[in-house]
Design brief:
Number of helices: 2
Helix content: 40-55%
Strand order of the largest sheet: 1-2
């Protein structure tokens, strides 16, 4: 769950387009303001994805 003022589908699209991170929008599963994370990569790739996701969250929080 996240507390940013952005729909999960829009956030997932931004993550994919601008940060090369693929997360499923919670709205696809009936849970708005959630993202679904898949754990299927090496620890290094997973950690990089989390770092990029955090960067996206910071950017959305600061500039919308």
């Amino acid at each position: 769950r996240y507390s940013l003022d952005i729909p999960s589908s829009e956030l997932a699209d931004r993550l994919a387009a601008e940060y090369s991170v693929m997360l499923a929008p919670g709205s696809a599963f009936g849970y708005e303001h959630h993202l679904r994370i898949g754990v299927g990569q090496t620890p290094e790739v997973f950690a990089e994805g989390l770092a990029r996701t955090a960067a996206c969250f910071r950017d959305v929080a600061s500039r919308g």
